[in-house]
């Protein structure tokens, strides 16, 4: 087992052990790629959603939020192109009977070459020491340049064959690269087929009159069909945005990466409506703004990168992903797409209704262009959670497991611990808790020795522990312990609220954007 697999396994088991994520319907052996958020997970997820909503909606006076339905008129999905083109290329291994996404097999092959590049860079960095210039090395070292060329050739060939629906060539590429089933090593592959990812269902009681529906595979279309309603009732002027968060459903072919790829998941999307011709500037603007949002959480600048798309979706004239370094490598976390006027035009055509914007200043009507930012809430959860989980060596040769969640996102902000279960200490601890709970999510814990309780809260991601001891009875002070530094200071009970607020208040975090 590699280090990466090991770290990922720890993430999954920690998420379960500490009440973050459970497998759905676990007592019936679960449902593949469907998960439930438990008591801590639901809080963390809500905090991430709030952090996004505040940054995107509340902080922009030209962006409003909606909450549209999961069910939509089925023609929506004809118009959007999902009925005809929301497919993934699927390939089966004849020996193992395992199913894969053909494009992902090829991308993973390229990721392995990237791993080789990283090794060359590390080696060279050691050899050259302080004099090492990474940029120069990458662009001149023949071996590294060769690796990059290889990746580029492979990915552009794949993009071309997928674009032209030449699935035989996708298979040929897999064979030429001698890509084997990662689980068994077998290279006995079937043909590549297209597979539609939408879930179908039925609306209506009787079989004859029932209407075929889809569970929405993205939240974006709920925004497009409401575009004119919102623009008119909100008296919105271009440029403006409509945002929403909500469930989406995809019958994913491969679902083996915990909450990274789920069949039921939640998206946080924003469609920004702009004047045609300004899409390049707005694309750059939203790339930068969204990256700043990510970096504001302090999860390590080196863990993010942009990945511009080679293969553009049928609706886009530019697209990039913000990738994050998950335990299994750099993968897409958020997509930023310049969607042109494709969606609004399609809905105009299929509905027969005009979906144009009338510009009072220039007295002209036009179909706006759209810039989209689309991030998976669950994937963001995984990014935050996996990045936070660390095993730390301590001075006394022991280790501690600590979940270093950004304090603004932590489910529980402070735990209040009476040193002993007597002498009136629990009563004071309860009083402190009753006072703080108006402002923060707080917990009370009196079981076990205080050291063990600290460890428990560390593993739970709680930024502060507040200990009530016998001195508290005399002088109304308590010990406050910081999760990350383990530093302990003595403070007055009356100062606790401000102290905690300083660290967890969304305002101060959002100001970093
Ligand atoms: P991928 O290439 O990983 O399948 P995608 O490019 O199809 O993703 P989009 O359609 O751009 O994804 O969706 C926007 C965001 O929604 C993604 O960046 C991701 O964070 C999230 N997302 C998409 N599919 C899933 C899924 N099955 N489970 C969890 N999150 C998802």
UniProtKB/TrEMBL annotation:
<dbReference type="InterPro" id="IPR022961">
    <property type="entry name" value="Gly_tRNA_ligase_bac"/>
</dbReference>
<comment type="similarity">
    <text>Belongs to the class-II aminoacyl-tRNA synthetase family.</text>
</comment>
<keyword id="KW-0067">ATP-binding</keyword>
<dbReference type="GO" id="GO:0004081">
    <property type="term" value="F:bis(5'-nucleosyl)-tetraphosphatase (asymmetrical) activity"/>
</dbReference>
<feature type="binding site">
    <location>
        <position position="101"/>
    </location>
    <ligand>
        <name>substrate</name>
    </ligand>
</feature>
<keyword id="KW-0547">Nucleotide-binding</keyword>
<dbReference type="InterPro" id="IPR002314">
    <property type="entry name" value="aa-tRNA-synt_IIb"/>
</dbReference>
<feature type="binding site">
    <location>
        <begin position="250"/>
        <end position="252"/>
    </location>
    <ligand>
        <name>ATP</name>
    </ligand>
</feature>
<dbReference type="Pfam" id="PF03129">
    <property type="entry name" value="HGTP_anticodon"/>
</dbReference>
<dbReference type="GO" id="GO:0006426">
    <property type="term" value="P:glycyl-tRNA aminoacylation"/>
</dbReference>
<keyword id="KW-0648">Protein biosynthesis</keyword>
<dbReference type="GO" id="GO:1990742">
    <property type="term" value="C:microvesicle"/>
</dbReference>
<dbReference type="InterPro" id="IPR006195">
    <property type="entry name" value="aa-tRNA-synth_II"/>
</dbReference>
<dbReference type="InterPro" id="IPR004154">
    <property type="entry name" value="Anticodon-bd"/>
</dbReference>
<dbReference type="InterPro" id="IPR002315">
    <property type="entry name" value="tRNA-synt_gly"/>
</dbReference>
<dbReference type="InterPro" id="IPR045864">
    <property type="entry name" value="aa-tRNA-synth_II/BPL/LPL"/>
</dbReference>
<dbReference type="GO" id="GO:0005737">
    <property type="term" value="C:cytoplasm"/>
</dbReference>
<dbReference type="InterPro" id="IPR033731">
    <property type="entry name" value="GlyRS-like_core"/>
</dbReference>
<dbReference type="InterPro" id="IPR027031">
    <property type="entry name" value="Gly-tRNA_synthase/POLG2"/>
</dbReference>
<keyword id="KW-0030">Aminoacyl-tRNA synthetase</keyword>
<feature type="binding site">
    <location>
        <begin position="260"/>
        <end position="265"/>
    </location>
    <ligand>
        <name>ATP</name>
    </ligand>
</feature>
<feature type="binding site">
    <location>
        <position position="218"/>
    </location>
    <ligand>
        <name>substrate</name>
    </ligand>
</feature>
<keyword id="KW-0436">Ligase</keyword>
<dbReference type="GO" id="GO:0004820">
    <property type="term" value="F:glycine-tRNA ligase activity"/>
</dbReference>
<feature type="binding site">
    <location>
        <begin position="265"/>
        <end position="269"/>
    </location>
    <ligand>
        <name>substrate</name>
    </ligand>
</feature>
<feature type="binding site">
    <location>
        <begin position="372"/>
        <end position="376"/>
    </location>
    <ligand>
        <name>substrate</name>
    </ligand>
</feature>
<comment type="subunit">
    <text>Homodimer.</text>
</comment>
<keyword id="KW-0963">Cytoplasm</keyword>
<comment type="function">
    <text>Catalyzes the attachment of glycine to tRNA(Gly).</text>
</comment>
<feature type="domain" description="Aminoacyl-transfer RNA synthetases class-II family profile">
    <location>
        <begin position="177"/>
        <end position="418"/>
    </location>
</feature>
<dbReference type="InterPro" id="IPR036621">
    <property type="entry name" value="Anticodon-bd_dom_sf"/>
</dbReference>
<feature type="binding site">
    <location>
        <begin position="376"/>
        <end position="379"/>
    </location>
    <ligand>
        <name>ATP</name>
    </ligand>
</feature>
<dbReference type="GO" id="GO:0015966">
    <property type="term" value="P:diadenosine tetraphosphate biosynthetic process"/>
</dbReference>
<dbReference type="Pfam" id="PF00587">
    <property type="entry name" value="tRNA-synt_2b"/>
</dbReference>
<dbReference type="GO" id="GO:0005524">
    <property type="term" value="F:ATP binding"/>
</dbReference>
<dbReference type="GO" id="GO:0070062">
    <property type="term" value="C:extracellular exosome"/>
</dbReference>
<feature type="binding site">
    <location>
        <begin position="332"/>
        <end position="333"/>
    </location>
    <ligand>
        <name>ATP</name>
    </ligand>
</feature>
<protein>
    <recommendedName>
        <fullName>Glycine--tRNA ligase</fullName>
        <ecNumber>6.1.1.14</ecNumber>
    </recommendedName>
</protein>
């Amino acid at each position: 087992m590699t280090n990466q697999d090991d770290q990922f396994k720890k993430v999954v088991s920690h998420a379960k052990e500490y009440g973050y994520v459970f497998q759905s319907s676990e007592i019936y052996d679960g449902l593949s790629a469907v998960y439930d958020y438990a008591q801590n997970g639901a809080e963390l997820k809500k905090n991430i959603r709030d952090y996004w909503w505040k940054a995107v909606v509340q902080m922009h006076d030209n962006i409003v939020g909606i909450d549209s339905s999961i069910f939509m008129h089925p023609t929506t999905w004809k118009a959007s192109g999902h009925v005809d083109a929301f497919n993934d290329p699927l390939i089966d291994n004849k020996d193992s009977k395992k199913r894969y996404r053909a494009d992902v097999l090829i991308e993973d092959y390229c990721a392995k070459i990237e791993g080789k590049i990283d090794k060359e860079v590390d080696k060279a960095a050691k050899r050259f020491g302080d004099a090492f210039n990474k940029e120069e090395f990458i662009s001149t070292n023949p071996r590294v340049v060769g690796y990059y060329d290889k990746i580029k050739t492979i990915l552009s060939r794949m993009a071309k064959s997928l674009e032209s629906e030449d699935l035989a060539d996708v298979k040929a590429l897999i064979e030429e690269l001698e890509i084997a089933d990662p689980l068994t090593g077998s290279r006995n592959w079937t043909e590549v087929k297209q597979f539609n990812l939408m879930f179908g269902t039925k609306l209506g009681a009787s079989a004859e009159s029932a209407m075929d529906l889809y569970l929405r595979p993205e939240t974006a279309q709920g925004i497009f069909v409401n575009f004119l309603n919102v623009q008119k009732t909100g008296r919105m002027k271009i440029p403006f945005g409509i945002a929403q968060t909500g469930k989406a459903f995809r019958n994913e072919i491969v679902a083996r990466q915990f909450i990274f790829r789920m069949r039921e998941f939640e998206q946080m999307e924003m469609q920004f409506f702009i004047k045609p011709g300004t899409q390049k500037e707005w694309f750059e603007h939203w790339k930068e703004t969204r990256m700043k949002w990510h970096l504001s959480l302090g999860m390590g600048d080196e863990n993010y990168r942009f990945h511009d798309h080679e293969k553009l979706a049928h609706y886009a004239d530019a697209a990039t992903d913000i990738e994050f370094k998950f335990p299994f490598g750099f993968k897409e976390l958020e997509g930023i797409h310049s969607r042109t006027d494709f969606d609004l035009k399609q809905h105009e055509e299929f509905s027969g209704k005009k979906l144009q914007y009338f510009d009072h200043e220039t007295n002209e009507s036009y179909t706006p262009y759209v810039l989209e930012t689309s991030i998976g809430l669950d994937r963001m959860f995984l990014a935050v959670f996996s990045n936070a989980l660390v095993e730390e060596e301590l001075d006394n040769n022991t280790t501690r497991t600590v979940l270093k969640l950004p304090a603004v996102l932590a489910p529980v902000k402070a735990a209040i611990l009476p040193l002993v279960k007597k002498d009136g200490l629990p009563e004071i601890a309860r009083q402190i808790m009753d006072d703080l709970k108006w402002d923060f999510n707080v917990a009370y814990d009196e079981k076990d020795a205080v050291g063990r309780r600290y460890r428990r809260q560390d593993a739970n991601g709680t930024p502060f522990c507040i200990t009530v001891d016998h001195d508290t009875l005399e002088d109304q002070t308590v010990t406050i312990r910081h999760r990350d530094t383990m530093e302990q200071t003595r403070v007055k009970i009356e100062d606790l609220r401000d102290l905690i607020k300083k660290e967890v208040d969304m305002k101060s975090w959002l100001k970093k954007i």
